[in-house]
């Protein structure tokens, strides 16, 4: 980081709040060089109250953001960097995660329902019955999205149906809805004392209430989901001044950039041209390809989303997206649930010791399968186990699963775009795992390119904030953008071996489907519900009685 600068003479700086599923961070960049100067990170808890439910504490999220901002400012002061040079702040966030709060008290009315939560499957099933042919793609031409548990509209509907406090607040005009960006911006700009209730086009496009052509909330969609329009935030561009920080070390600094995390990574990777793509390895996996100023509808299971709109008067750009629910979360699951190693780094080490999964395949469909299948009945499986299999092979299979899932969405992307990608640009926390990156190149049979500065998501938010009208400290002119040094991973196995392993993976994926229904578990299952087990027990009882009779 900023070791060799004359601290006191440094020019304008830009901060970025990166609010993710696993952690919150605040980072500060030099817009002249795109260099990261300092950061602070706070890990976040997720709770799982019931099977398939995933929640976070919206107040904890907000407190973590405040803490990160203050701690980063303290670190900058220790480096003799004047925090008065921070001219703007951008926000990037986990998308779809849904918060409804009381605008009179500033208090959340329920936990934040996280994007990969599955509780809304019965809501989805009920809504599908209202659609001709029960077609989950019925609204795709308008929203770019299929009707699934993933998007915010069904989470809002669940809250309205199941949380009395939410319904009452809506009736009394006290309720506000937002994805995490809206919750954070409203709170940082004053909260109940005049906070700005807004979102940007990239986050709005993930709610299923937003028309991606008109770039407005869609009255017919709101009517279908029975969501009141007046609880929704105002939709704005990804790069403009929304409001000013109302407290803390950066009071008065404008918040002027907002992008959903995957759009921010696309900007941070400087994928501004039609056909440029990146894959982010975070809690999930997200492959986005810039399709220019016209939305392209996928025929192979991908989503159409707004990539960015960098200014009020600028046109929107769109992207095709392949979304996978479980990426880095698979390593966290091995660490926390199976306890096969005390840290993510050690899981990487034991996978390296194995060197192969030896025929073991892991399909981490913990939240069903997202792109390209959109199959909510799937559940996670580990198959191909033998007596030889140990935890090292399972760790290796988990890393392979990340790469195979990327291969699936890349294949779909290539079919939709018509021109196969020749390299894959990557970012996200998992890209620090060199074994994973080499595996990815081997399974894709194309080079994988990783930027030396891995914080591309936060960088994208900072670029949007610094380029905003009224700030103007970051040029997005292609000639002015700083060249990024990269590490390149070339395929090291032949394509026949890659295809053989991929075929086995596809077989495992098929086995994962159809495990679950939307019927609730009662938890009371009779042994006689299994006919083979019932017959075995009855025969055993008859044999015991017969033996006793004969011996008597």
Quick summary:
With 552 residues, this protein is of the alpha+beta class. The protein is 34% helix and 21% strand.
Write out key terms for the chains shown.
552 residues; alpha+beta; 7-stranded mixed sheet; 6-stranded mixed sheet; 16 helices; 21% strand; globular
Describe this structure as you would to a colleague.
With 552 residues, this protein is of the alpha+beta class. The chain has 16 helices and 23 strands. The chain has helices spanning 58-78, 121-128, 140-143, 152-162, 164-171, 180-188, 201-204, 219-225, 261-268, 329-336, 344-354, 391-417, 434-444, 456-466, 495-512, 531-551; strands spanning 13-19, 23-30, 35-43, 55-56, 86-93, 98-102, 112-113, 175-179, 198-200, 210-211, 216-217, 234-236, 239-244, 254-260, 277-281, 285-292, 303-308, 317-324, 361-363, 381-383, 424-427, 448-451, 486-489. Helix 4 crosses helix 5 (164-171), helix 9 (261-268) crosses helix 14 (456-466) and helix 11 (344-354) crosses helix 12.
Shape: globular
Q: Describe the main β-sheet briefly.
A: 7 strands, mixed
| Radius of gyration computed on alpha carbons | 25 Å
On the 0-100 scale, what is the average pLDDT?
89
Helical proportion, percent range: 25-40%
Tell me the structural class. Answer: alpha+beta
Record the strand order, biggest sheet: 17-18-16-15-21-22-23
Stretches where pLDDT falls below 50 for ≥5 residues?
Answer: 1-8, 520-538
**Proportion of beta-strand residues:** 15-25%
Instruction: Count helical runs.
Output: 16
Number of strands: 23
First-residue to last-residue Cα separation: 88 Å
